[in-house]
What does this fold into?
Amino acid sequence: MFAETVLHSGGITEGHASEAHAAHLIRRALHRGYTVTPTPDGGACITWTARRLGSGSLIEEPRSVVLTPHTPAGHLHASVRTALHAIARSADAHAYLDKRDRDRPRLRIRLDADAEPVDVRTTSRLYGCRLVTEERGRVRLTLTATLALLAAHGADREALAAVFLPAPAAVPA
It folds into this structure.
């Protein structure tokens, strides 16, 4: 979940956005050519200039949508970044929750069918900090983790588009 702050012609509106809605906003902003800046806490700032006619002249007004995660990513140490990259690169990352540690859920992740599970302490920390999520036995990075990684690498528009916009379909010959 994200706190959403929208600067519009009528002032400022605050609300909440789900991960799906926040990802949709980012994709739409990239399609429209707006500036999308990931933040180190795992959020994003979308900015653009609205233009309208008023009193016979063109009026330009700044607009923005700021997405702030309810659970910030925090500082991503090198070991955390390495684990997140490994999970993001794995097309077949499987996970299961193991509740053997004093009733606290521990997430075990196996990146490939033949590979050993990733260090359970690391993956449990990632899960506890809401940087990864498990859905039906599959593990993926949360939007917060994705944005924090992009911010840590100083991602530009092309890097953001590579992550959020689908690749164009190949045209048959």
User: Anything to note?
Assistant: The mean pLDDT is 81. The CA atoms of residues 42 and 146 lie 7 Å apart.
